[in-house]
Amino acid sequence: MNEKELEQIVERVAAELFARMGAVAPTVQNDGKAKILVVGASEEVPPQLTEGVQLCPLSEYEASKNILRYEKVVITQLSLLQLADIALGRADDAACCAVLSALLAGKEVDLLESGLPHRKYAGKGSTGLYAKLEEYVRTIQGYGAKMLTAERLYQPKVLPVKPAKFQPQIAAVPTGNARPNFSSLITEEIALKLASEHQDEVIVPRGAILTPSAQDVFSKARIAVKKVNGGHL
Asked: How far is CA 217 from CA 181, 193, 224, in A?
């Protein structure tokens, strides 16, 4: 099916909807401008959707009755009656007619979550009534309408990570097979043994390492530690 055939089908379907409202379906006109039809208050349209487009009030659609001139429809406010009518396919007013015509024509329809009056009563009253209204919402989404939540609208843009201008070559880290020489490590235990064997002075290798606790042992015992070449423990 080509685009022209699709437009003819949309015209016939729209004509039936307009007939119920006592209106005459116009011929297809497209001025080529990016227009968004707003069902509800235009000032409620998020700024993310307004860049480079023209917002058109519902009154303009009522005058032309031509949904094909709009790029998409944004719903900023629906009454509970309109919510039910759209879900049930009833075009009893201009808003419902515009939304249903857009869905039939394959136009994008965005529904703001803030435009659903029953959502503010979630968990407060009749769960059965709330569930029924949510069923209408899911039905409209099943027709092709897209729900726009605050999270989806205000997601921060993830900027691409720019590669570094200069990336140094990763140098290989040599791995040795050295092992610590514990024979030159004087721990508290060894210091206590040496202190018991010597009274005034202890001779250790020059490279010997004394732990803080070992130094405390020699200090309290008033034993001097002398490091010499070739010394041994």
From this structure: 22, 10, 11
Q: Which stretch of 26-30, 89-93, 101-105, 168-172 has the lowest confidence by average pLDDT? A: 26-30
Q: What pTM value is reported for the model? A: 0.53
CA distance 110 to 38: 10
Return the number of other C-beta atoms located less than 10 Å from residue 8's C-beta. Answer: 12
Alpha carbon dihedral 6, 7, 11, 13, in 10-degree steps, equals 20
- Distances in Å between the alpha carbon of 129 and those of 39, 79, 118, 143? 24, 15, 9, 22
Residue 113 C-beta-side C-alpha neighbours within 13 Å: 10
pLDDT digits (tens, 9 = 90+) for 194-220: 888 877 888 888 888 888 888 888 888
CB 74 within 8 A of CB 110: yes
Q: Token pair 């919510």 is at which residue?
A: 83
Whether residue 86 contacts residue 96, with contact meaning beta carbons closer than 8 Å, is answered with yes
- Could you give the C-alpha distances from 190 to 101, 183, 209, 217, in angstroms and in order? 93, 10, 12, 10
pLDDT digits (tens, 9 = 90+) for 59-114: 999 988 899 989 999 999 999 999 999 999 998 899 999 999 999 999 999 999 88
For CA atoms 118, 119, 121, 126, give the dihedral sign: positive
Between CA 133 and CA 78 the distance in angstroms is 12
How many CB atoms are located within 10 Å of the residue 170 CB? 6
Distance CA 156, CA 144 (A): 26
Q: Which two tokens stand for residue 37?
A: 């039809």
